[in-house]
Structures are given as C-alpha cells and as structure tokens.
Design a protein that fits this description.
heterodimer; A: 106 residues; alpha/beta; 3 helices; B: alpha+beta; Heat Shock Protein 90; five-stranded antiparallel beta sheet; binds adenosine-5'-triphosphate; binds magnesium ion
C-alpha cells in the first residue's frame, strides 16, 4: 500500500495504490491524515486508480478521510475507482456521501 | 459432493496473513477459470472472513485461524474460515448491513459483502467457543458464458 499526494492549485490529489485491506488501512489513514494536516485543502480528490485490491477496510479509509475534511469544512471527491473498489463502495452507500467521479477500468 | 481439489492452511491471527489467505484461495479458484470479476469477488470475500477472525475473534491476543478451500463438482468453490475465538452472540444481528462492534475503523459491511459476492454464506458461532464461516460460489464454465 502506498499513499502519495500532489497539490494542484487549491486541490490536493491523494493517490492510493496497491492492496487496501485491514493490514494496510491504519497506515493509509495515518498518511492521508498527515497530508491533510499539512495542506488543509478545501477540496481533496482521492484517486483510487492504483488500487489492485480493496475490501471493506477501504470503506472506513474513505469515510475517515471524508470526516477529517468535513471537520474543517473541506470537501472530498473520489475518482478513477477500479470497478471492484467501486462495487464495494457503492454497496456501502459511500457514493451517496462522497461523489464517485469516474471508473478507471471498464 | 465430490471433492476435485482441496487445500488447507492454518495461520496466526496477524493482519499480514490476510493477503496470504486470499491469494492462496485465489490461486486455487483460478483452476476453475473464473473471470477477473469473479476472482475479485472471491478474494474480497475471503479477505472479509479472515479479517473478521483477525479483528473480532481474538481481540487482545493472537489465535489460530483455519482456512479450507475446496473445488467441488460443477465448478463450485467452497471456502471455510474457522476460529476458536470469542464467538458471536446474535448471528442474525451481526449479519445485518452496517452492524459493527468495531467502531470507526470498521463499517459493518463484511458479512453483507460475502453474502452478495458469493452464492451462499453460512455462519455458525458459539459464544466463547468460536465461529465458522462457510461460503460457496459457482464459477460458470467459459463455454456457457
Ligand atoms: N469471527 C468473528 N468472531 C467474533 N465476532 C465476529 C466475527 N466475525 C464477525 N463478528 C461480529 O460481527 C460483526 C459484523 O461483522 P462484519 O464483517 O459484517 O462487519 P465489521 O467487521 O464490523 O466491519 P467491516 O467488515 O465492514 O470492516 C462484527 O462487528 C463483530 O461484532
Ligand atoms: Mg468484517
């Protein structure tokens, strides 16, 4: 699991890659939190295109990121979720809280 | 039912073993020539069952997790995950979507995912004795797809 980020104007892009399971989730949230604390972006885009696996632990990572942004009025959107990750996220209703912009692999 | 192939694993309830378990089952399931989507569903379901044993069954200690995967007649994969942990008081409640005792790090979707990604899910649990989860999924032969 790897977390990288890139600041584009006022938007912070966070890239999650590798396997996001329970084993990786805690560290992922710590790294996401550190990037958010450093930049306090008003808009954050979580790019999931690099994920090769994601289970329900990923739901908590997305919602944790959402709550962290919301605590100071920031907004979160999701982009390029692989089909499989999108399936897990929609099953949990995450798409009703955080917009899922597009899907990486058809 | 005729068993065509079978494997068994036991491992300590360390989170690093979640990937080990799902990739082992995925390698066995690959013998049924599943689609990428089917394989993804299988890996996720195994990960959910094993993660539950790691997170919930043995809250403040390490314990053994037993995994068995079998290929049955007709292209059916059967996966059994068993622990000797704390068990579940009310299985129906535990299986309900969004029910969790895990706080903010969990979302209560594990059983719901297993149920919808696999064809069958059976959960047996005895408080204080442990939990057994059995899942089955039929992988369509390529010719019939
Ligand atoms: N092997 C187990 N041993 C003891 N309790 C369990 C076990 N598996 C599940 N449970 C109980 O059932 C509840 C629901 O499990 P489920 O997998 O659906 O959600 P979760 O693990 O809480 O969250 P998520 O899977 O979304 O991360 C758990 O919160 C826990 O209380
Ligand atoms: Mg779970």
């Amino acid at each position: 699991m790897r977390v990288t980020w890139e600041l584009r104007g006022s938007r912070l892009f966070l890239y999650l890659s590798g396997e996001l399971d329970h084993h990786a989730a805690h560290q992922a949230l710590v790294e996401v939190g550190a990037a958010l604390d450093e930049h306090m972006p008003m808009h954050c885009v979580l790019d999931l295109s690099g994920l090769t696996f994601m289970d329900s632990s990923g739901i908590a990572v997305v919602l944790g990121t959402y709550r962290r942004l919301k605590s100071y009025g920031g907004e979160l959107s999701l982009t390029r979720a692989p089909n499989h990750a999108a399936k897990v996220l929609t099953m949990a209703g995450v798409d009703k809280i955080v917009p899922i912009a597009s899907v990486a692999r058809p | 039912m005729n068993v065509q192939n079978q494997m068994k694993m036991e491992f300590l309830s360390r989170s690093a073993n979640e990937a080990l378990a799902r990739s082992a089952v995925s390698q066995l399931a690959a013998q049924l020539d599943p689609t990428l989507e089917e394989l993804g569903d299988i890996k996720t379901s195994v990960s959910e069952a094993v993660t539950n044993a790691v997170v919930h069954a043995y809250p403040d200690k390490l314990g053994m997790v037993h995994l068995r995967a079998r290929l049955l007649e007709g292209g059916v994969l059967e996966v059994t995950v068993r622990d000797k942990g704390v068990g579940i008081e009310d299985v129906d409640q535990a299986r309900a979507p969004l029910y969790t005792t895990g706080g903010e790090e969990r979302s209560g979707m594990g059983f719901t995912i297993m149920e919808s990604f696999m064809d069958k899910l059976a959960v047996r649990s005895v408080p204080g004795r442990g939990t057994t989860v059995v899942m089955r999924k039929r992988v369509m032969p390529r010719l019939l797809r």
